[in-house]
Amino acid sequence: DILNLQVYYPWEFLPSSPCRSVVFPLMTSGVTYWVMKSLRQLDVCSSCINSYTLLVSPRLLFTMLSFILDYSVYRLAPCWEADPWKALVLLAGSYVTLVFYTRTFTNTLEGLLFALLMVLVSSRKSGGSLAEPTSGPLIGIVTTAGFFNRPTFLAFALMPLLYWAGLIVDSQKGIKTVINHFLKLVLCACFTAVVFITADTFYFTSTGLDHLYSIKKSSVLDVIAHLNEKMIVTPFNFLSYNLNPHNLALHGSHPRVTHFTVNGIMLFGILHILAIGAGFKMLKKYIYQLFWVKSYCHGSSGLSVRSEGSPTLLLFYFVPLSFLSLFTHQEPRFLIPLIVPLVLFSTSQSRAVKWKPIIILFNVLGALLFGCLHQGGLIPCLLRLEQLMRSPEPSSHPRHYTLLFAHTYMPPRSLLNIQKRDTHIEVIDMAGSEEETLCQTVEQRANNSTCNDRHVFIIIPGTVRATITKCAVSFKNETLIFPHLSMEDPPQIPFLFSGSWRSQLGLYILQLDRD
Fold first, then answer.
1. Residue 117 and residue 146: Cα distance in Å, rounded?
2. Residues 55/381, Cβ–Cβ less than 8 Å
3. Residues 6+ apart with CB under 8 A from 463
């Protein structure tokens, strides 16, 4: 939208089915693209828009934003009896921070907002007593913004909001003060919601608005009336879609215990296991107290940060985890916001100290797998193709390119840096097509590429390289991008110990031979 590039619009961002707010993409990646566009228009940097800057600039912004986590952990550690510096080291050494929080995920923004919300609701100790709870306006703004970014944010916000409400009630202020806190929260939440709804409505109905503005007699009231007719509330559309089990099944169904038994361990390793063990102990303890020593709880009210810090942090961790487990579509990245309460819990009472070697090894392997190997050849492949297509043309006629991707993740077309007006570049995403379908498509493109100015490239992992050799085509050039690991088409273990191990962990760019 900003740089006028050819892209693939996800269905969630189509005007016919708007399920995601456009505000945060515009505020993050959009800002970096706007800066690059402005620099080009001012002739400060005429060649600053290329596949590399399109990739790195949003990631650089997200890396800078990730320090919100560090700030939050440093502020929260004294409140939850954790050592600030040990918590910061554990956070910074986690591959979740190094890999996921430097990428442009909505889950990353969700994690940053969750960390800020925890800071807002946690009261710092002042002279041995709890400070006055934070007033509601900022909490209302952060909660609503998180809801519009990803509606699942409500699962993360539930326990912090209940904890804050408990502090307000236990502060023994007058009823008017309590009502005032909640009224400020609600008013600021409503105002923030109006801002998001207005921005999304303008974006997704831009065609209709352009039509209105083109009519000279259209007044501001006409525009407002148009917005009222087309008002778009993206979180409700998101929930309406995802609460339908049939829709979730289209994106992949998983057992409801996947987050607990697989994804949590995959992201956090031994820290997740320690939290589960502590959770069972806490549950056993409270069940015992409930049935056998009820008098133990008499006279206590609310949650005390000093005495109940660890159980409360466990609730901050397991309540969102439990709510997310109600949905059958469960991806690991959905859990990355939970790193803050887990780090605080693990460093309180020095729980993670004796597991230090295992934690270091786990995060080194995780960073290598998810930061380098997993689909690692796709981005370098796009960077190389962009350079190839931008190379000087020997003839006056524009060259035509067909880029066919198979058995890779969906290639982000924006990194090819193709202008919308360019019609000589075609991108085909075959996803995980069967051999017969793939060969049929490749042979069809080969038959249509007889002219000298047409070039066809097939991009395919080394693990399925043999599939292409069965097609009735030949190739004149091939380039191996290393490393690249496809978990959908993993390499066979014996091949990894043979002379062809690099090809098994690589991504091929194959140029079709016109002859």
1. 10
2. no
3. 407, 486, 489, 490, 491, 492, 504
Q: Cα–chain-centroid distance for residue 64? A: 16
DSSP strand pairing (425-429 vs 454-461): unpaired
| 115-119, 237-241, 275-279: least confident range | 237-241
Q: What is the mean pLDDT of the chain?
A: 86
Tokens for 472, please give them: 């009735």
Whole-structure pTM value: 0.89
> Which structure tokens are listed for 350?
């020095």
CA geometry: angle at 340 spanning 158 and 329, to 5°?
60
Amino acid symbol at 216: K
What is the spatial distance between Cα 159 and Cα 150, in angstroms, rounded to a whole number?
17
pLDDT at site 222: 61
Cβ pair 314, 245 in contact under 8 A: no
Please say whether the beta carbons of 363 and 93 come within 8 A.
yes
Among residues 42, 29, 109, 26, the alpha carbon closest in space to that of 69 is found at: 109
In order, the DSSP letters of 366-421 are HHHIIIIIBTTTHHHHHHHHHHHHTSPPSSSSPPEEEEEE-SSPPP-GGGG--BTT
E strand spans, 34-145: 125-126, 129-130
135: left (phi over 0), alpha (psi -120 to 50) or beta: beta
Nearest alpha-carbon partner for 146 in 129, 128, 160: 160
Q: Any idea which residue has 């550690």 for tokens?
A: 77
Q: Are 484 and 376 in contact (CB under 8 A)?
A: yes
Report residue 254: phi and psi, to 5°: -130, 155
